[in-house]
Amino acid sequence: MRRSFFSEFLFQAFALIISVIAVHAFYVTSVRPNATAILEEQALRIQQEENYTAERSLWVLIRDFEQESCFVLMFWAFAIMGYKAVFMFNERSLLQREFLPVREGVRILPEDTREYGRAIESLPDKIKGMLLPRVLLSSLDRFGSTRNVQDVSSVANSLCESEGERLESELSMIRYIAWAIPSVGFIGTVRGIGQALGEAQRAVEGDIAGVTENLGVAFNSTFIALLISIVVMFLVHQLQLFQERLVFDTQTYVDHNLIRHMRSRGAA
Question: N or C: which end of the chain has fewer CB within 10 A?
Answer without folding.
Answer: C
